[in-house]
Amino acid sequence: MIPHVTELLTRMRAIQEAISTRVVASCEQQSIEELSEVVDVQAGDMIFAIDRISEAVLVEQFADLAQTRSLVLIAEGLGVTGEMVLPAGTRADEAELRIIIDPIDGTRGIMYQKRPAWILTGVALNHGAQTDLQDIELAVQTEVPLVKQDQYDCLWAIAGHGAQGERVNRKTHARAALPARPSLADTIANGYGGISRFFPGGRAELAAIDDELVERAVGPGKPGVPRAFEDQYICTGGQLYELLMGHDRWIADLRPLIDKQLRARGEELGLCCHPYDLCTELIAREAGLLITDEYAGPLTAPLDVTTGVSWIGYANQRIQAQVAPLLQTILQERGFL
User: Fold this and answer.
1) Under a CB-based contact definition with an 8 Å cutoff, are residues 108 and 102 in contact?
2) Which helix (DSSP H) or strand (DSSP E) does residue 157 occupy?
3) DSSP 247-295
4) Which of the residue ranges 56-70, 206-220, 247-261, 264-278 would you say has the lowest mean pLDDT?
5) pLDDT > 80? residue 196
6) Are 275 and 302 in contact (CB under 8 A)?
7) Following DSSP, what letter does each residue of 286-317 receive, concatenated?
8) Helix extents (H) in the chain
9) Cβ count near 294 (within 10 Å)
10) Alpha carbon of 211 to those of 188, 221, 240: distances in Å?
11) pLDDT digits (tens, 9 = 90+) for 20-53
12) CA-based diameter of the chain, in Å?
């Protein structure tokens, strides 16, 4: 276990609140055009002006933390490798911790003020390049609220100690407990869920898989009666939050599988989920959610900024039992597995 993990939790929460405060202030002061300017492309993803704001706070805060805890910081925007070893002069193999972070997960939603973003952080003991998502022992995610929001949520987990959360009032700073409440439903019928398809490229195939799964799981539709619903939250942290709060019953992000097929046809999908997007899945597991890879096994991936990751989340075992076998069969029939 990470030494002094509760003290580190307090520090991670403070760092995330500092980033959120700076980003919200920038959204209040700058135009959409200024915030959405493309300033770089790294690991296949666009870096916007709003990302630079969060990155600046990130480096400041973790440089200060490194006065007491040596670490390898992993995030987009940290050069070609996506890594920074702190304090300066420390060798990566000598650092105590590996900390992977997405300083703004949901950039596109927050910069256009369409939907809140999230700050995601996962902390593991340093096992070198082999350090994996399953090695994360502390995870924290904090909502970056829209300018018009008076409240935001924060969720966290220490491995083996369950998930916890708070709702914070931005104006009064009042805090209230926010328990995770995954759905107890035993079917996907009449509930939210679905397969992620955020961007052009592969959406027709992903939608076809989604439609076929609902058809097999729920049965044929009736005129004027929708069988299930979907809500495309362009943000992995946000998707995990929706599962945690009982809003969604299942989510599957299979873009890396589609990417392989598109490349075989000479096309490019462009953007997949990465380990930093999933660095808080520990919170979901500690809350009782079932998070798997595309083969229904434990979700594993190196802590880096480049690996494409497919993942599936289920609110409970009954939802998993209904969806997982059908999804596996459909993916096999369509040549994705």
Assistant:
1) no
2) strand 151-158
3) SEEEEEE-HHHHHHHHHHTT--------GGGGTTHHHHHHTT-EEE-TT
4) 264-278
5) yes
6) yes
7) HTT-EEE-TTSSB---BSSSS----EEEESSH
8) 5-29, 32-35, 49-65, 107-111, 203-218, 236-244, 255-264, 281-286, 317-333
9) 20
10) 13, 11, 22
11) 999 999 899 988 888 778 877 765 567 787 888 8
12) 67
**Count of beta carbons in the 10 Å neighbourhood of residue 255:** 24
pLDDT value of position 152: 98
Q: Give the separation between CA 51 and CA 61, rounded to whole angstroms.
A: 16
SS3 state at 68: coil
**DSSP bridge partners of 282:** none
**Distance from first CA to last CA of the chain, Å, rounded?**
36
pTM value > 0.85: yes
Q: Angle, to 10 degrees, between the axis of helix 5-29 and the axis of helix 49-65? A: 150
Query: Phi/psi of residue 319, each to 5°?
Result: -65, -40
How confident is the model at residue 81, as a pLDDT?
Answer: 85
| Sequence-distant (≥ 6) Cβ neighbours of residue 2 within 8 angstroms | 8, 97, 123, 124, 125, 137, 138
Is 209 exposed, middle or buried (CB count within 10 Å of its CB: 0-12, 13-18, 19+)? buried
- Both tokens of 323, joined, read 């969806």
What the block records as the tokens of 68 is: 């007491």
How far does CA 200 lie from the centroid of its chain? 20
Question: Counting beta carbons within 10 angstroms of the beta carbon of residue 172, is it exposed (0 to 12), middle (13 to 18) or buried (19 or more)?
Answer: exposed
Q: Please report where in the chains the tokens 């022992």 appear, as a residue.
A: 137
298 is written with which tokens?
A: 């434990």
Q: Angle formed by the axes of helices 317-333 and 203-218, to 10°? A: 130
- Residue 190: helix, strand or coil by DSSP? coil
| Cα torsion angle, 38, 41, 45, 47, sign | negative
pLDDT by residue (tens digit) across 281-294? 999 999 999 999 99
Please state whether beta strands 192-195 and 97-105 pair in parallel, antiparallel, or not at all (unpaired): unpaired
